[in-house]
Prior knowledge:
Blueprint: H1 7-44, H2 47-89
Helix pairs in contact: 1-2
Amino acid sequence: MNGLVDAPELQQQRKAVRRARGQGRHWYLRAVLMLVIAFWGLYRGGSLFNTIGIVMIVLALLSAHLGRQLRRGAKEMERKLDLMEKARVE
Length: 90
C-alpha cells in the first residue's frame, strides 16, 4: 500500500470537505443576517440601537471571515485529496 491512504478514508475526508463547505456557507448567511439586524438597529437610532448595530457589524465581519476560512480550507483539503488519489492511481 506504500503508506497511502485507502479509498474509504479518502471518501470520509471528502465528506468532511463537503461539510466544511456547508458550514462556511452557513457562516456567510449568518453574516448577512447580522448585517441586516445591524442596519436596522442603526436606522432606528438611539444609543442602545446604535451600540447593537455596531456590535452586529463587527460580528458579521468575524462571521464572514470564518466562513471564508472554512471554505478556503476545504478547497485546499480537496486539492490535496485529488493529489493523493492521483498518486494512488499512478
